[in-house]
Here is the input.
Amino acid sequence: MKRIYMDYQAGSPVDPRVIEAMIPCFGTVFGNPSSTHAFGQEAKNAVDDARAKVASLIGAERKEDVVFTSGGTESNNLALTGTAERRREKGKTIVTSAIEHISILNICKHLSRLGFDVKHVPVDSYGMIDPAAVEKTISNDTILVSIMYANGEIGTIEPIAEISKIAHTHGAVFHVDAVAAVGKAPINVERENIDLLSLSSNDIYGPKGVGALYVKQGTQLRPIILGGGQERGLRSGTENAPGIVGMGKAAEITAQEMKDESTKLAQIRDRLRKGILDNIPHSHLNGHPTARLPSNLSVRFSYVEGESLVLSLDMEGIAVSSGSACSSKTLEPSHVLRAIGLRHEEAHGSLLFSLGRWNTSDEVDQVLGLLPEIVRRLRRMSPLTPKELQV
Amino acid sequence: MKRIYMDYQAGSPVDPRVIEAMIPCFGTVFGNPSSTHAFGQEAKNAVDDARAKVASLIGAERKEDVVFTSGGTESNNLALTGTAERRREKGKTIVTSAIEHISILNICKHLSRLGFDVKHVPVDSYGMIDPAAVEKTISNDTILVSIMYANGEIGTIEPIAEISKIAHTHGAVFHVDAVAAVGKAPINVERENIDLLSLSSNDIYGPKGVGALYVKQGTQLRPIILGGGQERGLRSGTENAPGIVGMGKAAEITAQEMKDESTKLAQIRDRLRKGILDNIPHSHLNGHPTARLPSNLSVRFSYVEGESLVLSLDMEGIAVSSGSACSSKTLEPSHVLRAIGLRHEEAHGSLLFSLGRWNTSDEVDQVLGLLPEIVRRLRRMSPLTPKELQV
Here is the structure.
């Protein structure tokens, strides 16, 4: 049985072209970029080349503004804690949304304990943030606004450029968590006037354990990992040159192929969406109908547990998610699904298909061939299912 | 010209057996260990298997006590900041040494600014810490003692078990930075009663961008990277499964081969040491003559700049270091060489050969064939060189 993977949001295979670019680095580009000898300088050049490729993917004019980290979560920590601690004399309010990634939520909780005042802008039933709501929440005491580019759980893409204007009008630093969006939405830090932008390598089919934070020239941060002063003093620790080279190659491929890939992803995603919503009664789309990531399909099914669906599909060799993998060890329903107004049982009945580079129309058809019967079977087992659906 | 690399302390190639173990992971073990489906569970199993191998290398009884991080620097940050913030109600004094890695120095500087009282125990002219000096410095207000297992710049191995006893008698948590020592000294966290131990993967020929912190059961830390609560809540961020698998394989190989490898390294290191000290006048060993890492040779040459030696050797295709690569971008002499009592010019005249798995006796002979003439030439160019050495 060929297995089907539709949980790219939780983790992706590395593109074979990226692996090919990385492998020689393990054995040859092993110098320390801080060393003055040839081995060190070769590593430094490889890292700088990757930096330029990542900068180019996000439309950054200066490659120096890209700081490599160990991943999206670390980038978010550096952006938020780094800004809060650096700007605490200027104010103590931080504005964010109710549907940010769990790392942003937990960092904000920590900052609250340190005395910062964190305000969560609500979202509408599509998970969309209304810029007017940001305008109403922000004040001149606001030092930082942190909003995600797009939500990985429900796919909704936020009005980043408009929120950026509001943040800057009030003198706040504007951070964007683009981990879920990178490679799927045309991010441009210059056009959208973004000060800080978090990226992860694995979300563009690069290696895990690598990420980046774009730090616009002049934006000041306190580092969270101290040491030898690498990455302009913002992130100490010997540079992971092979991993960084991998992220650079992944960024280069993504920049070239994103447009076509997004079109293809949206096509097969829409086929899956139509197949589910047309053929399974009491199934509903989560997130915005049009302003959404091409790779994302979040659907909820009445009278079914998402986790039971995940297990039933897993037995058929199909990997999907019932929510954010990052928090799936807790039994709490996703804070994102709660924030868009879903009731407890609606949130628990949700399934996330996150498609990626290697999914095919055939795979979609296989899922569509199995899912309706699985839902029927699970509904038959539930005492809550109305009689007319007990078929 | 075949190049010669003798700067393993700054960075190492990844062992081909490790690369072989990692490559399939990039394409297959790409699930998120937090996911409940098969892909996720495969990643979880791979990470757990690696955890057991790393635990075994350092003699830890419980594999759960190994927390994966992005490298040695992050491990040091988590250990020190994490302990200080968690135990601040119990006291405010931190005891460390004058020859720790730059990451420990800079974290301690930061903790001083936060109100902690950091005391630096001095070392003797070999870089050895006298346990009696620790006993004199420690007090019942001491919450943390952080001492390196061995110094990477001068090779000296510290009396860890004795210092451990003193730390625990005073109720302090005992942290050991073992980044330079791992794979070269028989670390055993149970026997030496270590609470926290920092490791890096690349120092045992594993991939860069991965490290670990051993956290003895019951030792409490505040995490520095917040998010999805991975690694028992101590280190959030999706696990870098391929990198962790690589570190596990590297630990397994190291555990099997360390004894023979150390014997071999000490032999060729001693050949290099004898060849230099016997044939180059006014050359002196830095660090302890016997209690030292088998891979390390630090030598100082009067009337010569270490950086000029590095450049001259680099032109011959030989990579060595004039000090810690982590701080080589500053022109300050190494704090380690200053702490063992070297004068400014003696410190600047030092050269570090750090040998590794692939160095050979032949390479040592090639270096010995070139170095005396290079030193002579540089001495002829220096106005400070006494007449009798101007040959």
